[in-house]
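Section 3.1: Structural characterization of target chains.
Under the original work plan, the team committed to producing a structural model for every single-chain target entering the pipeline before any wet-lab resources were allocated. The record below documents one such target. The sequence was received from the expression subgroup and is listed exactly as submitted; it comprises 348 residues.
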Amino acid sequence: MDCFAPAIAITGSAAISAAGNGIKPALEALISDTSCLKPIPEDLAAGTTGHCWGKADQFKATDFIPPLKARKLDRASQFAVATVGLALADAGIVKGAFPSDRIGIALGSGFGGIANASEFLSGYYQAGVSGLSPMLFPNTVANAAASNASIEYGLQGPNITFIQRFCSAESAILAACRFLEEGRADIMLAGGVDELTPQMIRGFAVTGQLHRFAAGFGEGCGILVLERAEHARKRGAAIAGQLTAINTVGFLLPGAEQQGINQLLQPLKSCNQLFFTGPEPAVQPLLGTVEAATIRYPGRIIGSSLAMGGVALGLLTASLRPGEQGLQLAASPEGPYYAISVLGGYPA
């Protein structure tokens, strides 16, 4: 259990999702319960019907990135570069205004760069070594998105990428908070990014995952700007919310599930807003333990992914009034499990 005293300040946020570009369209869709998911073409879903996905169709990389530069980036990196720029602007942070080695990034990503990796390997299978494209190789790894965002905005502080199933973004956010607490950075960009490709859907269909955990998959990026509270106040930043605690357990032991759930949710047993990410069956055992005025599942609106927790936490923060208590729960089918406590606003 990580309790932050003083709390970690959230001074900016941004998102790209199936709802559009920015936090506002996704929040409006969530509050109005308007699904942004669209039917998956039957030829991708192995002939099955009734499946949907959350493609970020309104995103156009060249709206945020010069065309020649955008061509060199995989889709996940395009998401990350655009969203980090929006989040920095929301936090009032201008490139060069702070020491570059004091600003870092922590991202979760489940499938970042998978399209480029597929294209890169296809070249080898079709033509051997001569078919390999050097331009594609840098974007075949999951940490390409965080690295490309760092290059674009001069972020020379801590840089780390997590792949931890449906809790990838939450793991990254916890790491970012620890970097701040340890004094290794003054500002951290944290969240998650994932892309969604036809090849992935075909793979999910063949392995039976469309009927299980991949139903309603989505893509996009969600970024929070995190700072120690005293640093944020010193620079006069507007504080949208506070991260007060992050609890995590790796596994719910058979026969002792409730003990693990109690450990995860201590001491918070009630809140104003509860958001959750990950497959609904995995999160369901946690929901009955917390009393919440409002419970929302962003995955039903914009799609789910291994790194959608960054978008969800941005939406949760934006939905809180000053003084309201929020809680984000995240679960993977076999663990880990996360509970992130957020307090709206900041005391004067």
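DSSP finds twelve helices and 14 strands in the chain.
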